[in-house]
Write a structure and sequence with these properties.
Blueprint lengths: L2 E4 L3 H13 L3 E5 L10 E4 L4 H7 L2 H6 L2 E3 L1 E7 L5 E4 L2 H6 L3 E5 H9 L7 E3 L3 E7 L2 E6 L4 E4 L1 E4 L6 H12 L5 H4 L6 E7 L17 E6 L5 E6 L5 E8 L3 H9 L12 H5 L10 H6 L7 E5 L1
Helix pairs in contact: 1-5
Length: 296
């Protein structure tokens, strides 16, 4: 059994780490030329913790994350905030939610995969089915042979597109799968550098997670404190119409600083849920690590 994994994001690398542990031959094909340190924070619920224990990195995950006990939602203009108590997780699952930045989680997983098994700059062009297996052809005129292809290449998956075209030609593609994916909005994300001491109240032993819903503007923002004194943040703007959603889909947005556009300027003055303004967070976030992504 030889597996071809298309996509070296968190999903693809997690699968690669599992196959590595199981001693199943594989190779990872990633269209980007390198790994980009972008994204915000990721929530690891207790139900997912066994995966990291199986991979032997649960203790490392704990060192780079913080437990989440409450989530607070504010509104602007201000009204009484809503506080969600998440402490029941410990009693129900004998563990709690852990918050870690996307990049730190990615690095933990990446260290489990030998570098020679990840091939960067390999964009899939076609996939051929043969009696003896499958062949993936890339835009760099290379061919990779395997027994199975796994598409872990994101919302606008090339593997999914090729598979859907084949099913459509056979009249087997469901009508709902032929439609463009429903996009609810786009989300600006990032992680600040370590903030100046006293700039915000950031607890040392747990994650402070607070969101802000704007009544007068179509934005929702969120902040999650990190163990090192940095803050992971996001700003969500919903798609206003079906036309907007279609245009957003067709743009096939990649993760990267080149996608952020004017969105930071539009919301600089909004209050940050943890204090200060969103502009304060933007100014303390390396621009090359900011990104805007589609939300399906």
């Amino acid at each position: 059994m030889h597996v071809l994994i298309v996509g070296a994001g968190i999903g693809g690398i997690t699968l690669a780490a599992l196959l590595e542990q199981a001693r199943v031959p594989y190779v990872v094909l990633e269209r980007s030329p390198d790994v980009r340190p972008v994204g915000s924070a990721i929530s690891i619920p207790p139900t997912v913790a066994p995966l990291f224990k199986q991979l032997g990195v649960y203790d490392e995950l704990l060192r780079h994350s913080q437990p989440l006990h409450t989530a607070t939602n504010h509104t602007f203009p201000p009204s009484k905030p809503r506080v969600d108590d998440l402490t029941f997780m410990k009693q129900r699952y004998n563990d709690t939610i852990h918050i870690i930045t996307r990049q730190k989680l990615y690095n933990i997983l990446l260290n489990l995969v030998p570098k020679d098994k990840i091939h960067f700059g390999k964009s899939v062009q076609t996939i051929q089915h043969k009696p003896e297996g499958v062949i993936v052809h890339t835009t760099t005129n290379e061919s990779y042979y395997g027994d199975a292809v796994i598409g872990a290449d994101g919302s606008f998956s090339t593997v999914r597109e090729i598979m859907y075209k084949e099913l459509q030609a056979l009249g087997l593609l469901p009508k709902e799968d032929a439609a463009l994916p429903f996009v609810s909005g786009h989300c600006l994300v990032g992680v600040t550098s370590v903030l100046p001491k006293g700039a915000m109240v950031l607890p040392e032993d747990e994650c402070r997670y607070e969101t802000l819903t704007c009544k007068s503007q179509p934005f929702m923002t969120g902040c999650l404190s990190q163990p090192d004194g940095s803050v992971a943040w996001y700003a969500l703007q919903p798609a206003s119409s079906a036309k907007t959603r279609e245009e957003m889909c067709l743009r096939n947005v990649e993760w990267g600083a080149e996608t952020i556009g004017d969105m930071p300027d539009e919301i600089r003055s909004l209050p940050c849920p943890l204090g200060q303004t969103m502009g304060f967070l933007f100014d303390h976030t390396p621009k090359e690590t900011m990104s805007k992504v589609l939300i399906e």
